[in-house]
Design brief:
Shape: globular
Helix content: 10-25%
Oligomer: single chain
CATH class: Mainly Beta
Number of helices: 4
Strand content: 35-45%
CATH topology: Pnp Oxidase, Chain A
Order of helices and strands: HEEEEHEEHHEE
Length: 140
């Protein structure tokens, strides 16, 4: 079962303010990987992360072809290290995009003054703390 703890949620939601950036791993339809930093990752609820995709580059194209992603959080100050595995949903318009945009840190949105970015909602399937699986979605 996926149920993000308060510790995880607080760490993610304060990451940018603490100068911590998450790494986003994606892969295209043929499996070619790509990694990029994201300053806008926040915990949406107990089983979803969201972020603002403003670069509209390789990661966005990869998520269109292959929704499986991994987001890594590492804080060198307290040595907290989590990996979040899930499926990305791209939300380019509508009220859910607006709600997600409102949750994104303002410093990140300032880099997209025209607000042309895409909201990305990641349904989590597994969470690892270091090498250990600490949460996993139950099979349906």
């Amino acid at each position: 079962m996926i149920h993000l703890t308060d510790e995880i949620r607080m760490a993610l939601n304060q990451a940018l303010a603490n100068r911590i950036f998450c790494a986003l791993a994606t892969a295209d339809a043929q499996g070619m990987p790509d990694v990029s930093y994201r300053g806008s990752v926040v915990a949406w609820d107990e089983e979803h992360l969201v972020f603002w995709e403003r670069s509209r580059g390789t990661a966005l194209e990869n998520m269109r072809e292959n929704p499986k992603v991994c987001i890594m959080y590492y804080n060198p100050n307290n040595r907290k290290f989590w990996r979040f595995y899930g499926r990305a949903q791209l939300i380019a318009e509508g009220p859910e995009r607006e709600r997600i945009m409102a949750a994104i840190p303002e410093a990140e949105l300032e880099r997209d003054p025209e607000r042309t970015g895409v909201a990305v909602k990641v349904a989590l399937d597994m969470v690892r703390e270091g090498p250990r699986v600490i949460m996993q979605r139950e099979s349906r």
